[in-house]
Amino acid sequence: xxxxxxxxxxxxxxxxxxxxxxxxxxxxxxxxxxxxxxxxxxxxxxxxxxxxxxxxxxxxxxxxxxxxxxxxxxxxxxxxxxxxxxxxxxxxxxxxxxxxxxxxxxxxxxxxxxxxxxxxxxxxxxxxxxxxxxxxxxxxxxxxxxxxxxxxxxxxxxxxxxxxxxxxxxxxxxxxxxxxxxxxxxxxxxxxxxxxxxxxxxxxxxxxxxxxxxxxxxxxxxxxxxxxxxxxxxxxxxxxxxxxxxxxxxxxxxxxxxxxxxxxxxxxxxxxxxxxxxxxxxxxxxxxxxxxxxxxxxxxxxxxxxxxxxxxxxxxxxxxxxxxxxxxxxxxxxxxxxxxxxxxxxxxxxxxx
Length: 353
Ligand code: NCD
Ligand code: ZN
What we know:
alpha/beta; binds zinc ion; binds N-carbamoyl-L-aspartate; 11 helices
């Protein structure tokens, strides 16, 4: 079987759980999972404990990532109720700002329209602004950003009405980009009984067949595929109060290759959404000394217990995957080869410089 060379994949949406919940994941285990999945850059969300909404937590997170990361990484600053005036002083050290407009894991959320408008106006236009928005808040996020003369990136679009609204906004020339996760393209609420009710909890929730079909039908306006890698342990997922979130770094490429094998997307279209567009969103230059070698036809069975993520489970347990990463070269050095993570903790660099 032939080996294909792809650029290093870039995941703009992961949860590394550090600081505060390293039993779920940390920069060591999370970036090992990234390399297995073919990612050479991962950008970490700020809903940590404490949330990354101030300079002290930023410094603590930078130190943990610098010491432990095996691949390159970026950090997002969290929009809080009381940091709209000061957030922009941290722009140079982070890869963007994240605004949570709806309920999800952790307390970080903006409830007031005024706070959303103020953050969108204050965050520098050259730095990405990413939004967790669902249903009506998608419209609020697009309007607030465009009124401020800047673009906004809508995370994990999961519903038909959302993707159709984004298409209309793009058609009208609004500045908006969006991402879709592999789990929203390949799972629906009908899969929850098989996955298990606690394990099936994720935000945005798994949606209907019609929603899933609409995402696939509108792939042409989907800028990025992002995993929303959100690890929680099996004990937590199987408890009476299961936190929402799926691990995804180690299954994303094979799932997205399914779209190519099924004739829904070209290989170039996959590269655009997993490397080229994420890089351009993050204002990153091309890296000619960083690449991934894959066997697009190699079959393997997804098994959470053998994965690098500390979550040790996957909603795709038992699925036959087609397409495997054989080698990852990061800045000229072998970082992963044939099942072995070679890059040591501390190899990764902060893409914010
Ligand atoms: C994420 C988490 O666990 O941090 N959970 C999830 O269901 N996606 C939070 C988020 O991205 O909304
Ligand atoms: Zn997320």
